[in-house]
Every structure is written in C-alpha cells, then in structure tokens.
Amino acid sequence: MRIWSLHPSSLDRVGLVACWRETLLAQAVLADATKGYRNHPQLLRFRRTENPIGAVGVYLAGLAEEATRRGYKFNASKIISRDFDDKLTVTQGQLDYEWQHLGAKLAVRSPEDALRWQTTAAAPHPLFTVVPGDIEGWERT
C-alpha cells in the first residue's frame, strides 16, 4: 500500500489509479469494514487524528479532484466522510524520499511522466503541511 504524501498531480495514470484504490482500502480498514492491512504503517498518520475517516476522506477527495481534472471518472460517492478541517504534517525528508521513489517508478513505467518529473519539484498533497524532519518512522525504506 502506498498512500503518497505527494500532490496527486505528480502521479502518472498508473500511480493515481493505484493510489485511489489503495486509499479506498485504507478507508475500509479505518472504518473496520475489512480485516486486512489493519496494522499497515501508512495508516498511522490518519489514526493519529481525531477523525481518521474524515482525514482519509479529504485525502481521497484530493485524488478525485485530480482525476476529474484529467478526465477520469473516479466514483467520489465511495468517500465515507470529508469532515476534517485540519491539516496533517509530512516531513521534508519523507516528501523528498517519496519524490525520489516516484521518479524511479516513472523512469521504468512512464517515460513521458519521467521527463515531466525531472523538470518539476516535489509538492505535498493538499491535506499535508510540510515540516522539517527526516523520513517518517512509519516509512519502509
């Protein structure tokens, strides 16, 4: 499961669709609607909030907005709640790590997107505010 801290516009088609599907799974886990992935480390940042379902819903809404911008049809009615007015934090080290990880993936599966990646900088998903720090403790490097 990869729930990117990066802005959805950074992702290629494959990455955006995979992130949507994996975050829907994360939402199901947080809603106790499935038994798998309950201890996945990437869920910690949502679980630390007062409203994990709302936080993951805001994350999903950001993915859906990017999908709509590209002309894709993600079923946003699958979002349980968007009731979350706060921001989550992501460390600069985590964002940098994910940016390099994405670049390596794009080089293999999406050469056009890899070229675009080379000329842009890492930006966070709208749910996140970047703070100083190293790679997050929950990241599996």
From TrEMBL:
<protein>
    <recommendedName>
        <fullName>DNA lyase</fullName>
    </recommendedName>
</protein>
<dbReference type="InterPro" id="IPR004260">
    <property type="entry name" value="Pyr-dimer_DNA_glycosylase"/>
</dbReference>
<dbReference type="Pfam" id="PF03013">
    <property type="entry name" value="Pyr_excise"/>
</dbReference>
